[in-house]
């Protein structure tokens, strides 16, 4: 038996033989992932098209591939690939291309489908495989006597060794990358299953990416890749060029309690990646007004680590939320990749409210807390209260005599956003501030706002601000509202849920207003009711009474003013001094009864108008009387009635103001 000498370890004979026999003698494309992994397709003719529609040279039935995605051109210089304005683009060795000459073993990606190009210039597989068979069936061993003979002057040994090394290298290169080990680090570890993982079916992306997809109709950015693995053989990778993308898991059923999201992340170059947890209600429909809360997403920090890091995101599930999904977002300002692996979502059921307040409670999300939700018993009132920011900004929460106070932890200014649930929004939304009280049935923008009152009765919440600020509100899906307010530096937001003092003040104002009406101090009554509406609209019945009372009193004042104007018109037509005087007295009395109101101002204006007309009429009548007396005196003098004429002259003198 021959003496065998062991060469350095190499691929198994079966793997090498299979690889060598599959070495092409013409250009080919070989599928690297998916159901067709390992399948080789020869490039025939001078033009070869790739796309999802029938009629292409290579049809790939994948949603990330366009109907007519790319064209490969074969000529004497080799093979080129040209992107045909596809939706998700064409990449060569990770870089997006429009028209590119292919290297002998380039890695192509059409959408999310990877194929390895081979130009067919490798050694003939059959001949090499036959030589291997003659060698005795085990690759990597050469008979000792052959080596001894070679030492006597054979020049074939170096050639044989080099040939065997080249074969081993070729086989290693052609094996899938998961057989080679992780090219960006050490060989990946074994996948360890996490007990209770809600994402157990797609935890480490080993089987497939079932349940993971881009949201809606957005293009796929993340693909399953062996180069993105942290454990096992597969991970999820996004390759970006000045852009961003989202990928999300299927919705999972959850109950109240604490959710813990964990994942392993890393990036390259300009890439960044973050994880988010979206909470949903099965009953929510954005097209229908209902009581179910709208979805909200709690985001973790952006990760820019070049090596694997483990991240964690914690959130308490508020009442009425019964489903959750994981969202991953990647972005790059330039070229970069983002890798995600080993995603787990656990429900430990140990969550406690961030701040209990009688029947109300504040529930936090994030660690540290960056989102808060206000609930009353089992009803969500406000959700997704957070600082609008590229990265999560933590919130500080403390008890307040009337509820709780929320501040931005770092003290810097910021735009705070929140969603008002439809159950609360149904009671109406009213702003209070420098311009008084305003009810808003539609979208609005307002400055000088000091507080917002939302809802009625037991379902009522007030947002109080440390100073006047700008507020924007607009209706949201399902009958809710979205509010955005600019909180200044060191500013705070009070979520008020207790209104005992305000209700007492409202009842006192209502009592005083009713008493003023009984005493005919109607202006005082209007002002008291208006104060209640502007500053204390906390009791729905009293508020409605005040609105009706003001409307009735103002309407009564307008009726009285209208009747007075008719009296003045009659006095004007008949030139009745007494008519003017009676109207003037009535206007004075109306002005006094409605003192301090717009009705009093209108009455004052009417008094002034009546007075002017009365003076003018009296002047005209006086002048007419003087003319009449002068005519009488002239007639008396013509008749030589000097004594009577002298009496008339005296009367004229008195009319004209005394002695002359």
Number of beta-strand segments: 33
From the spread of the alpha carbons, the general shape counts as elongated
Uncertain spans: 1-24, 123-186
What is the count of DSSP helices, taking H or I runs of 4+ residues?
12
Any guess at the CATH architecture of the domain at 195-351? Sandwich
Defining key terms:
alpha+beta; 13-stranded antiparallel beta sheet; 12 helices; disordered N terminus; Tumour Suppressor Smad4; Jelly Rolls
Describe this structure in words.
This protein has twelve helices and 33 strands. The model is unreliable at 1-24 and 123-186 (pLDDT under 50). The strands form five sheets. Strands 21, 22, 23, 24, 25, 26, 27, 28, 29, 30, 31, 32 and 33 form a 13-stranded antiparallel sheet that branches. Helix 9 (540-574) packs parallel to helix 11 (598-638). Among the domains are: 26-118, Tumour Suppressor Smad4 (Sandwich); 195-351, Jelly Rolls (Sandwich); 383-498, no CATH class; 500-547. The protein is an alpha+beta fold and 660 residues long.
Layout of secondary structure:
Blueprint: E1 4-6, H1 13-21, E2 28-31, E3 40-42, E4 47-51, E5 58-59, E6 70-75, E7 78-83, E8 90-92, E9 95-97, E10 99-101, E11 107-110, E12 113-118, H2 125-134, E13 141-143, H3 144-151, H4 156-174, H5 177-180, E14 222-225, E15 235-248, E16 252-253, E17 257-280, E18 296-299, E19 309-317, E20 323-347, E21 355-357, E22 360-365, E23 371-376, E24 379-387, E25 395-400, E26 403-408, E27 414-420, H6 422-425, E28 429-433, E29 436-439, E30 444-456, E31 459-475, E32 481-487, E33 492-496, H7 500-518, H8 522-535, H9 540-574, H10 577-593, H11 598-638, H12 642-655
């Amino acid at each position: 038996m021959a003496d065998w000498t062991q060469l350095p370890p190499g691929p198994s004979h079966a793997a090498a033989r299979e690889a060598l026999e599959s070495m092409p003698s013409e250009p080919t494309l070989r599928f690297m992932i998916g159901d067709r992994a390992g399948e080789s397709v020869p490039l025939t003719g001078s033009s070869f098209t790739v796309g999802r529609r029938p009629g292409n040279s290579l049809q790939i039935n994948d949603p990330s591939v366009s109907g007519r995605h790319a064209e490969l051109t074969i000529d004497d210089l080799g093979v080129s690939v040209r992107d045909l304005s596809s939706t998700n683009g064409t990449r060569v060795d990770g870089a997006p291309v429009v028209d590119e000459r292919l290297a002998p073993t380039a890695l192509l990606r059409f959408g999310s489908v990877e194929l390895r190009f081979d130009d067919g210039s490798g050694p003939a597989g059959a001949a090499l495989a036959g030589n291997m068979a003659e060698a005795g069936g085990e690759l990597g061993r050469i008979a000792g006597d052959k080596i001894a003979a070679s030492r006597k002057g054979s020049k074939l040994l170096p050639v044989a060794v080099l040939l065997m090394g080249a074969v081993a290298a070729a086989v290693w290169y052609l094996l899938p990358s998961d057989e080679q080990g992780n090219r960006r680090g050490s060989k990946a570890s074994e996948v360890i299953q996490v007990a209770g993982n809600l994402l157990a079916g797609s935890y480490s992306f080993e089987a497939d990416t079932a349940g993971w997809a881009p949201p809606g109709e957005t293009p796929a950015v993340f693909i399953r890749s062996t180069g993105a693995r942290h454990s096992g053989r597969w991970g999820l990778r996004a390759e970006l060029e000045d852009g961003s993308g989202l990928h999300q898991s299927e919705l999972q059923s959850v109950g109240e309690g604490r959710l813990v999201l964990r994942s392993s992340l890393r990036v390259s170059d300009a890439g960044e990646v973050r994880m988010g947890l979206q909470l949903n209600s099965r009953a929510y429909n954005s097209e229908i007004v209902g009581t179910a809360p709208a979805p909200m997403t709690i985001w973790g920090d952006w990760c820019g680590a070049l090596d694997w890091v483990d991240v964690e995101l914690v959130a308490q599930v508020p009442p009425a939320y019964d489903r959750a999904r994981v969202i991953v977002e990647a972005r790059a300002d330039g070229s970069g990749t983002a890798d995600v692996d080993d995603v787990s979502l656990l429900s430990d059921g140990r969550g406690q409210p961030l701040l209990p307040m009688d029947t109300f409670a504040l529930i936090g999300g994030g660690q540290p807390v960056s989102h808060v939700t206000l609930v009353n018993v089992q009803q969500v009132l406000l959700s997704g209260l957070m600082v609008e920011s590229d990265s999560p900004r933590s919130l500080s929460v403390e008890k307040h005599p009337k509820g709780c106070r929320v501040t931005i932890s770092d003290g810097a200014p910021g735009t705070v956003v929140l969603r008002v649930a439809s159950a609360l929004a149904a009671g109406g939304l009213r702003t209070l501030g420098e311009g008084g009280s305003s009810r808003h049935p539609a979208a609005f923008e307002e400055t000088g706002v000091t507080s917002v009152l939302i809802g009625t009765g037991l379902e009522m919440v007030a947002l109080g601000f440390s100073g006047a600020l700008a507020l924007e509100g607009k209706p949201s899906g399902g009958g809710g509202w979205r509010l955005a307010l600019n909180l200044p530096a060191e500013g705070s937001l009070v979520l008020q849920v207790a209104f005992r003092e305000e209700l007492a003040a409202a009842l006192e104002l209502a009592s005083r207003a009713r008493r003023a009406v009984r005493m005919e101090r109607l202006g005082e009554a209007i002002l008291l009711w208006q104060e209640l509406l502007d500053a204390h609209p906390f009791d729905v019945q009293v508020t409605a009474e005040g609105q009706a009372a003001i409307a009735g009193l103002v309407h009564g004042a307008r009726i009285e003013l209208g009747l007075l104007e008719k009296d003045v018109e009659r006095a004007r037509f008949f030139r009745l001094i007494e008519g003017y005087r009676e109207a003037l007295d009535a206007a004075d009395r109306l002005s006094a009864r409605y003192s301090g109101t717009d009705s009093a101002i209108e009455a004052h204006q009417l008094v002034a108008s009546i007075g002017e007309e009365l003076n003018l009429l009296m002047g005209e009548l006086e002048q007419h009387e003087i003319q009449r007396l002068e005519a009488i005196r002239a007639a008396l003098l013509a008749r030589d009635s000097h004594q009577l004429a002298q009496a008339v002259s005296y009367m004229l003198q008195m009319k004209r103001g005394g002695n002359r």
